[in-house]
Recover the amino acids of this structure.
């Protein structure tokens, strides 16, 4: 859902809003999981989005966590499958093997100058979702 759109907003603004929304959802998910189990302060970001320094920095700023990317981020699933096979053949722990072989190529740390804006926007994001819960239920029933 787009909110607070003006005639001056461009396609670029809309794309950024979608990406910020995805990052806000990831933060909300992390906060929910954190209530049950401890999560890492560092996130290993893989997939197509991890190829973008802008998205990676945005994720760091919104979650307040350190973001690491790897080479060949789009092939993370295949790399993981190969590591499971290799660990099985060698009789090694797969996580230890992954730590040795899959190296970080870039690290993004939260930029404190963006914190205030993202905190405000995240608060509005959650508020909008909660205030529309009845509407979502109506649409999806």
């Amino acid at each position: 859902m787009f909110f607070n759109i003006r005639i001056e907003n461009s396609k670029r603004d809309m794309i950024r809003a979608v990406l910020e929304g995805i990052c806000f959802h990831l933060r909300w998910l992390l906060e929910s999981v954190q209530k049950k189990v401890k999560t890492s302060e560092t996130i290993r970001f893989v997939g197509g989005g991890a190829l973008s320094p802008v998205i990676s920095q945005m994720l760091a700023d919104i979650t307040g966590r350190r973001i690491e990317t790897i080479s060949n981020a789009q092939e993370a699933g295949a790399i993981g499958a190969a590591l499971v096979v290799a660990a099985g053949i060698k009789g090694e722990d797969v996580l230890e093997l992954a730590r040795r072989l899959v190296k970080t190529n870039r690290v993004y740390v939260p930029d404190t100058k963006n914190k205030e804006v993202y905190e405000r926007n995240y608060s509005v994001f959650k508020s909008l979702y909660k205030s529309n819960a009845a509407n979502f239920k109506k649409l999806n029933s």
